[in-house]
Design a protein that fits this description.
This protein has helices at about 15-25, 25-35, 55-70, 75-90, 115-120, 140-155, 165-175, 185-195, 235, 240-250, 250-260, 280-295, 300-315, 330-340, 355-370, 380-390, 395-410, and strands at about 45, 50-55, 95-100, 105, 110, 270, 275. By secondary structure, the protein is mainly alpha-helical. A three-stranded antiparallel β-sheet has the order 3-4-5. A two-stranded antiparallel ribbon has the order 1-2. It has a two-stranded antiparallel ribbon with strand order 6-7. A hairpin with a 4-residue loop joins strand 3 and strand 4. Helix 4 packs across helix 8 (about 185-195), helix 13 (about 300-315) packs across helix 17 (about 395-410) and helix 16 packs across helix 17. The longest helix is centred in the first third of the chain and has 16 residues, at about 55-70.
Amino acid sequence: MVPSMKFWDDWVDPIEDMQALWSNPDVHNEWTAAGEKRGQKVHMSRNPDGQPYVTQIEMRAMAEIIIMRHFKGGLDPAMICAIAEIESDRQPLAYNYKPKLEEGSIGLMQILQSTVAWLAKDMGYRAYAIDQESSMLHRPFVNVYFGAAYLRWLSTYDGKRRSEEFVVRSYNGGPNKASSHSSQGYWAKYLLAKQSLPMKSDFSLGEGKQGPLLRSVDKDAQEVLLPGKNRLYWDEKVSDEDMAEMWKHPKVMKQWNKAAVKRGNVHFARDSMLRPYITRTELKAVAEIIVSRHFSKQGVNSAMLCALAEISSGRLVHGYDPPNGIMQISFQTAQWLYSDLGCRSYDLKSVEDLSKPFVSMYFAAGYICWLSNYEGRQRSEQFIVQAYRSGPQAVSIQETGPFWLKYLEVLPYYDTKQQKQGSCKIQ
């Protein structure tokens, strides 16, 4: 039986999470107005039945914190808040047993423990450790994290960018019921709940909302020092060994020196939306280092890797679908390469490891290596590129042809000599 919730501090990280909540202006004002003080435990609100609940302001703040920490802005907080509204009425102790499934949905987002186990084991969402005790899922930050992870997975279900309606209706009944009559009522409730929230939504999962495919700012290394807070550093995402190799690369060193950055303090460039991304010079260097170090005898083409990064992620560090990184390779594919094919030069402990440029590039190169000899046959460049997008069993002109044409369009930006394809053996 889950104990009663009295204080926020007892159900979240008392330092990191509480500091993040206190730092939110709206939460700060709400708590201060209620007589709460920093340094003292903060009471949870209670409804007329005496059950603890999260206020709409607290819910919005939690959603924003989780998204920025683990999904790099790739989800809409209003969607999370509206789902929590209709699923649990924002009650963290909510529990609904489902006889057909022989388990119950838990917490703010009413997520199943089996779904959480799958997200952690197979999809790499491991920011919070979950054991057999379902009480962990009553913790607000933990529950919102896994609910958001499931929404993220649904947003690109079956390799396609999905609409808001598809994601929401799938959250209720699974992706197979996204178009069924049974999920229509849930969608209607969601829209009403979303309209009632005291904030505006900027939900965007659709095509065309990803930002520019190509960037033209690489000519000026001063881009590395665009003004703003919350900088992301190369040194946070790259090992000392890899950073040493980057500094040895003549063009990278020239660009970084021109930008007056110092060793141990190199910022990622940022676009107009302040999203960190990799310059073409940096991208070429990462690809060349990975190929020369791990695939020098396997015929993996660094220009191909760079072009795939360009069209897959726009060179965004976290990718269009965070946190799959610059190569937008899925955790499942990377985990398979690691476990079954011996691709183990980089550790792969969670999906967030793929937001590290060298890690994402390494597993993408390993996947290309495997695709180049799919089913024991040497494959063409076109097959490899299209299969990278959809998987080798789903290559078709209609579905993956446009991806191939985009690839041909951006390939000239990476003027690397074409390497002769050979048989692959991952090192």
